[in-house]
């Protein structure tokens, strides 16, 4: 049987939030787009919450608003963050306030599936988008574009291939982009809880014994846990039953929210710093975790990926009429537009992780003195808030 060939302006490989947002942005920009992805998986039977949530910044909100996705989200599932309190391991404390920073909110806490379902609905209404639920298994290049061989035997021809296929990106491997990965030897443990006490739309973060515990405010009196724990400790946490995990979270957070009731199974994911030597190649651009991976202590990984999407869409929209989408002159504009933002956030998150995991009394004094200094400087705090908002 002969392979069936289809031709597109762009093919997006990868079906997470970043990949689907990229496909939507490009097709709304007037391109014919193929998306190689699966629809959002249904929640487990009886589940009412996703274990995985994201803290979306103002820049992410603005992008989703431009794509008319934000307006379609269930407002009852959005949790604003108006304040954030960060506690060191020796009485130091930082307080960030949306009011003091003159912004509407510091972030929005949203379940992954809530965003993905809205993206899926928007994608189904795009006449120039073809959704293909199969995987790519070959990527070849000619002077005119890229050829993507599919597992079902068909072939896609595209001027531009967008690699949005995660930290272990197949697309990245095909273009020979060298990846440098440093394992933090930590696992992010996530779960959601019903809280006895109100959270007042405040996010909390504690640094304890080289680990980081965050509780993020969710609607209807719920909070979401992100515990960056040493891998051996994370395995112990994941082995606890829901009541035991709730009791342990109560203990390490000083019962900030009173009694907790675990409402989603705990899940874990390995934490690492990952960099690549190039974001683009002829006819290919990388976005999201395929392009970078950072520590979640600042909650900025998804925002960084969505800023990739915004920059790529803007670069494509500004293309000269005589250029192809896969022209390296064009794609290097995207790469240059993203390098500084990615590098700055990597340095910041990696530096903070090293500082708060360093043993010894000197390191402890240094980090807590630094926190106290930042807490006393309104200008620095406003700058940090501005940077986090994107």
Automatic annotation (TrEMBL):
GO BP annotations listed: ubiquinone biosynthetic process
Keywords assigned by UniProt, alphabetized: FAD, Flavoprotein, Monooxygenase, Oxidoreductase
InterPro entries: FAD-bd (IPR002938), FAD/NAD-bd_sf (IPR036188), Ubi_Hdrlase_CS (IPR018168), UbiH/COQ6 (IPR010971), UbiH/COQ6_monooxygenase (IPR051205)
EC number(s) recorded for this UniProt protein: 1.14.13.240
Short name of any one Pfam family annotated for the protein: FAD_binding_3
Chain ranges of the FAD-binding domain: 9-345
Source organism per UniProt: Paraburkholderia sediminicola
Record protein name field: 2-octaprenylphenol hydroxylase
PROSITE patterns recorded: UBIH (PS01304)
Family: Belongs to the UbiH/COQ6 family.
Superkingdom to which the source organism belongs: Bacteria
């Amino acid at each position: 049987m002969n392979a069936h060939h289809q031709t597109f302006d762009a093919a997006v490989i990868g079906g997470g939030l970043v990949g689907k947002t990229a496909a939507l942005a490009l097709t709304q920009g007037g391109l014919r787009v193929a998306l190689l992805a699966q629809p959002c998986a249904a929640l487990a039977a009886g589940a009412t919450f996703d274990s995985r949530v994201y803290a979306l910044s103002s820049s992410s909100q603005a992008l989703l608003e431009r794509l008319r996705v934000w307006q379609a989200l269930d407002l009852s599932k959005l949790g604003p963050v108006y304040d954030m309190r960060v506690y060191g391991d020796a009485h130091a404390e930082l307080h960030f306030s949306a009011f003091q920073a003159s912004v509407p909110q510091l972030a929005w806490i949203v379940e992954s599936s809530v965003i993905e379902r809205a993206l899926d609905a928007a994608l189904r209404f795009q006449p120039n988008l073809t959704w293909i639920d199969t995987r790519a298994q070959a990527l070849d290049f000619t002077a005119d574009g890229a050829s993507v061989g599919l597992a079902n035997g068909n072939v896609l021809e595209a001027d531009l291939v967008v690699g949005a296929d995660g930290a272990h990106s197949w697309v990245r491997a095909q273009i020979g982009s060298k990846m440098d990965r440093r394992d933090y030897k930590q696992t992010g443990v996530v779960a959601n809880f019903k809280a006895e006490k109100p959270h007042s739309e405040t996010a909390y973060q504690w640094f304890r014994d080289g680990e980081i515990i965050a509780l993020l405010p969710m609607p209807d009196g719920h909070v979401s846990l992100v515990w960056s724990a040493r891998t051996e400790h994370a395995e112990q946490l994941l082995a606890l039953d829901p009541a035991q995990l709730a009791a342990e979270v109560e203990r390490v957070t000083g019962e900030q929210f009173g009694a907790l009731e675990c409402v989603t199974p705990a899940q874990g994911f390995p934490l690492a710093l990952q960099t690549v030597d190039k974001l683009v190649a002829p006819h290919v651009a990388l976005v999201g975790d395929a392009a970078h991976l950072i520590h979640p202590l600042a909650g900025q990984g998804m925002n960084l990926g969505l800023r990739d999407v915004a920059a790529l869409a803007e670069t494509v929209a500004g293309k000269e009429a005589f250029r192809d989408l896969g022209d390296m002159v064009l794609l290097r504009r995207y790469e240059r537009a993203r390098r500084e933002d990615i590098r700055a956030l990597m340095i910041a998150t990696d530096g903070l992780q090293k500082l708060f995991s360093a043993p010894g009394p000197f390191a402890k004094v240094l980090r807590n003195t630094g926190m106290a200094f930042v807490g006393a400087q309104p200008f620095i705090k406003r700058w940090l808030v501005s940077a986090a908002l994107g």
